[in-house]
Design goal:
Elements lengths: L12 E6 L3 H11 L4 E6 L2 H11 L3 E5 L7 H10 L7 E6 L4 H9 L4 E4 L4 H12 L2
Parallel strand pairs: 1-2, 1-3, 3-4, 4-5
Helix pairs in contact: 1-5, 2-3
Length: 132
């Protein structure tokens, strides 16, 4: 269930999606797109980090394996920055080994979803992360 903000108290949240696969970015964007979010996309870790620093999103969805900075590197940068450490992070990855999940969660991810993922699972995790 999606709880809406009462009229006049609209809060638009910024969400950054970072994945080197355009089809995944498209799927994630289409899944979470709503009037409540401004969704920005990055195709690599460096682009993601630049967007995150500039726009201070409430939520970042990161692929673990990207060119340049990996999703884990970007996650660690987020959590090390006092201005960003409250940012919620969901890792989206094909790395499904138990040790991969542990590494992601220990690095500070709020949720870890493996590809392929269900759009409903993704939406549920986004709502939980942003406490909608």
């Amino acid at each position: 269930m999606r709880v809406r903000t009462p009229p006049g108290l609209e809060v638009v949240r910024i969400v950054v999606i970072a994945d080197d696969e355009s089809s995944i970015r498209l799927l994630v964007h289409a899944t979470i797109e709503s009037d409540d979010f401004v969704v920005m996309e990055a195709s690599n870790g460096a682009e993601a980090w630049a967007l995150i620093q500039q726009h201070k999103p409430g939520l970042v969805l990161l692929d673990v394996q990207m060119p340049g900075r990996s999703g884990l590197e970007v996650l660690r940068l987020i959590k090390a920055d006092p201005n960003l450490k409250a940012t919620r992070v969901i890792l989206l990855t094909s790395k499904a080994q138990e040790t991969d999940v542990e590494v992601g969660l220990m690095a500070g991810a709020d949720f870890y979803l493996t590809k392929p993922f269900s759009p409903l699972d993704l939406l549920t995790r986004v709502e939980e992360a942003l406490q909608l």
